[in-house]
């Protein structure tokens, strides 16, 4: 019986040791699984990053060109801001959402314009400067025409006045001064 009780105690101690060892092994296994999952995630992220770099690397020069074009667009927009009719614009809903959508649409439009008209940008700038010159010339001509029109009106007034006085003088000579006074003052 002593041996049996000692054997039972040893068996219980061995079982406790085995459980502890099993728990340690289980913890170690879960740590290893966690490390494997982390490495897999890192590998997937690295592959995704490599793919993105492969796809986006040709776009870096286009992005730099877009930045320059956007700066010139912003300068020209700022220069013509006073000419834009902003008092009648109503933005319904969330203003920031509207601006974000507008920015997205402008980016798409800019990309499309760059694709469609890459060689015409220089010609557009030349045409813009020519339009400005044409506008200045038109304004000068308008001022000159206005001055000439005023001079013609003054001249017409003077001619009408002279013709009127001449006709009055002819009537006075033909009908006499007394008859003409009755026409005007009676």
What report would you give on this structure?
One of its GO terms (cellular component) is cytoplasm. This is HAUS8 protein. The structure is a single chain. Helix 4 (about 120-175) crosses helix 5 (about 175-185). The protein folds into 2 domains: about 1-85; about 130-185. About 85% of the residues lie in helices and about 0% in strands. The protein has helices at about 1-55, 60-80, 95-115, 120-175, 175-185. The protein is mostly helical and about 190 residues long. The mean pLDDT is about 80.
Question: Would you kindly provide a brief summary of this structure?
Answer:
This protein is an all-alpha fold and 186 residues long. Helices cover 87% and strands 0% of the residues.
């Amino acid at each position: 019986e002593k041996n049996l009780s000692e054997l039972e105690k040893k068996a219980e101690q061995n079982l406790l040791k085995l459980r502890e060892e099993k728990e340690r092994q289980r913890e170690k296994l879960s740590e290893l699984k966690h490390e494997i999952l982390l490495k897999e995630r890192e590998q997937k992220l690295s592959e995704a990053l490599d793919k993105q770099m492969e796809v986006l690397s040709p776009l870096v020069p286009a992005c730099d060109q877009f930045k320059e074009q956007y700066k010139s667009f912003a300068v020209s927009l700022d220069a013509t801001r006073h000419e834009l009719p902003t008092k009648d614009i109503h933005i319904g809903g969330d203003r920031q959402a509207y601006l974000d959508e507008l920015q997205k649409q402008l980016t798409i439009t800019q990309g499309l314009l760059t694709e469609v008209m890459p060689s015409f940008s220089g010609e557009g700038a030349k045409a813009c400067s020519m339009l400005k010159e044409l506008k200045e010339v038109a304004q000068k001509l308008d001022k000159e025409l206005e001055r000439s029109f005023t001079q013609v009106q003054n001249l017409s007034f003077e001619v009408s006045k002279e013709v009127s006085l001449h006709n009055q003088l002819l009537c006075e000579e033909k009908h006499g001064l007394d008859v003409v006074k009755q026409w005007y003052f009676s």
